[in-house]
Automatic annotation (TrEMBL):
Catalytic activity: 2-deoxy-D-ribose 5-phosphate = D-glyceraldehyde 3-phosphate + acetaldehyde
InterPro entries on file: Aldolase_TIM, DeoC, DeoC/FbaB/LacD_aldolase
GO molecular function: deoxyribose-phosphate aldolase activity
Compartment annotation: Cytoplasmic granule
Record-listed E.C. numbers: 4.1.2.4
Pathway participation: Carbohydrate degradation; 2-deoxy-D-ribose 1-phosphate degradation; D-glyceraldehyde 3-phosphate and acetaldehyde from 2-deoxy-alpha-D-ribose 1-phosphate: step 2/2
Protein name, entry field: Deoxyribose-phosphate aldolase
Main location: cytoplasm
Enzyme class: lyase
GO biological process, any: deoxyribonucleotide catabolic process
SMART domains found in the cross-reference section: DeoC
Origin species: Phyllobacterium trifolii
Listed CDD domains: DeoC
Length: 334
């Protein structure tokens, strides 16, 4: 793969961001997943060796890191979020890399931005205002994030509120109990109602995989979410004890691939939680390339839920340009 393949222009129009046909879902088909078996040790071996098989260095690493930036859902989900913090985050989303670094990379006119900005529902109007004219979509968590244990009517109302305030993407959380008790029809119906409530906004289903106990449950929950119409499946809220891991992501990608073969439809993937470094970004890009290929390295089908990761990516790009490592404080966020 050459560097130009990685640096595919992302575009700035929201229509470009969401140019792929949406996942229409299917009926609940238990035979697609109910008897699936997952070999944990084989999964962990595969995940461990993936990142050692491909070496990406020098200008190619810089290109991959730029690609990672365009796939980041730049996120703030803190209890002390303010309009000011959201405005600063959005300013970083518009210009995620210093102009002198972009000029040195020959990308001064490439309009590099993050894939989206992700906030709480009450912060959506502030983000929409700050991103006006940028083409960067606003994503909102909803449905009682992070636990998802509020009554369903309230969770659906939260989706309506976020969409009404301008959110173009909704990150919903599932009821983990439905997975743990194997109540697949309840899980399917819940997500289908959330998809309907979201309307034209793209739906990312957070599985909270750290709460699901087994890789088999991760696969089955992934398949049900896609059958119910999720546009993306997402690993974690970032609030669980265990968030995104490569083995869990591998199982979700296998489910995603199987769903595509069975339904003929395309679904995106978003790991989130615990990813803080440029190396993390590279590892997940390698996973996407090895398992699904170049189309799943684009923001239409791949997002990284992160915040501090962007600072480290910018630091690595500065090192590539200057040969010197800057203090992390030079690349602080929000």
């Amino acid at each position: 793969m050459n560097r130009q393949d990685i640096l595919v222009s992302k575009g700035t129009d929201l229509a470009v961001q969401h140019s792929l046909a949406r996942n229409a879902g299917t009926k609940l088909a238990l035979d697609w997943f109910d008897d699936i078996a997952v070999n944990r040790s084989a999964t962990e071996r595969r995940a461990a060796t993936l990142t050692t098989r491909r070496t990406v260095k020098k200008e190619y690493q810089a290109a991959w890191l730029i690609k990672a930036i365009t796939c980041i859902d730049l996120t703030t989900l803190a209890g002390d979020d303010t309009a000011g913090r959201v405005h600063r985050l959005c300013a970083k989303a518009r210009r995620p890399v210093r102009e002198d670094i972009l000029e040195a990379l020959g990308l001064a006119d490439a309009n590099i931005t993050t894939g989206a900005v992700c906030v709480y529902p009450t912060m959506v109007p502030h983000a929409v205002k700050a991103l006006q004219g940028s083409g960067i979509p606003v994503a909102s968590v909803a449905t009682g994030f992070p636990a998802g244990l509020t009554p369903l009517p309230q969770r659906l109302a939260e989706i309506h509120y976020a969409v009404g305030e301008g959110a173009a993407e909704i990150d919903i959380v599932i009821t983990r109990e439905h997975v743990l008790t194997q109540n697949w029809s309840a899980l399917y119906d819940e997500i289908a109602q959330m998809r309907e409530a979201a309307g034209d906004a793209h739906l990312k289903a957070i599985l909270a995989t750290g709460d699901l106990n087994t890789l088999r449950n991760v696969y089955r929950a992934s398949m049900v979410a896609m059958q119910a119409g999720a546009d993306f499946i997402k690993t974690s809220t970032g609030k669980e004890e265990v968030n995104a891991t490569l083995p869990v992501s591998l199982i979700m990608l296998r489910a995603l691939r199987d769903y595509g073969e069975l339904s003929g439809q395309t679904v995106g993937f978003k790991p989130a939680g615990g990813m803080k470094t440029a190396k993390d970004a590279m590892n997940w890009l390698i996973l996407m390339k090895e398992e699904l290929g170049l189309p799943w390295m684009q923001p239409e089908l791949f997002r990284l839920g992160a915040s501090s990761m962007l600072g480290d990516i910018e630091r690595q790009l500065e090192h590539y340009v200057t040969g010197r490592y800057a203090a992390s404080s030079r690349h602080a966020l929000a």
